[in-house]
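Weekly sync, protein design subgroup
Attendees: M.S., D.O., the rotation student, P.L. (late)

Item 1: inverse folding check
M.S. brought a backbone from last month's batch and wanted to see whether the design step gives back something sensible before we order anything. D.O. pointed out we never logged the input encoding, so this time it goes straight into the notes. Structure tokens as presented (181 positions):
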């Protein structure tokens, strides 16, 4: 399967793996390091892959990328962790990260657009326990009217061009629907 092959080649390129927890680390505040998830599932730190690529290619600036990439249940996931509420996320920045992540995959590996079909791009945002019950109730009510309430409309260019799946999930949904299935 192409997704598993992509993951293995990236793993060979970077020669290391880490945990989703480590990739979710938000250390902007040096006084308080926060992790968006406690999940220890093995992944590749995609930021490290991008840094290595930029260094090898002698690029003076750096490209941006999603935080991690992992393979599970015959699916390749590209994940961006945002330690903020869903409504505060800057979607243009996310779109750029996803574009440059796909660029990097295509630069490093001999793959075509069609090889990306089925890949899932996920933005994981900070849980807000106060609102989680309301969201769950709304999703249950909406599920009869909307086919996929987790879909990211602003990133549908990826779905149209590459036939990938885009989702935004709270950390709880990411854990329950993707990693711990």
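Designed sequence read out in the meeting:
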């Amino acid at each position: 399967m192409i997704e598993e092959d992509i993951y293995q080649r990236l793993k060979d390129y970077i020669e290391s793996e880490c945990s989703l927890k480590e990739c979710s680390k938000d250390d902007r505040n040096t006084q308080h390091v926060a992790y968006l998830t406690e999940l220890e599932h093995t992944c590749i730190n995609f930021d490290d892959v991008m840094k290595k690529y930029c260094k090898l290619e002698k690029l003076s600036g750096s490209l941006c990328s999603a935080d991690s990439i992992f393979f599970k249940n015959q699916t390749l996931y590209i994940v961006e962790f945002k330690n903020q509420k869903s409504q505060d996320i800057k979607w243009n920045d996310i779109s750029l990260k996803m574009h440059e992540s796909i660029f990097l995959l295509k630069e490093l590996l001999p793959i075509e657009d069609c090889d990306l079909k089925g890949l899932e791009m996920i933005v994981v945002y900070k849980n807000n326990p106060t609102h989680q019950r309301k969201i769950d109730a709304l999703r249950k009510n909406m599920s009869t009217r909307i086919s996929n309430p987790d879909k990211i409309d602003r990133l549908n260019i990826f779905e149209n061009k590459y036939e990938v799946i885009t989702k935004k999930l709270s950390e709880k949904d990411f854990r329950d629907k993707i990693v711990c299935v």
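Discussion: The longest helix spans residues 91-108. Residues 2-179 form one domain.
Action: P.L. to compare against the previous round before Friday.
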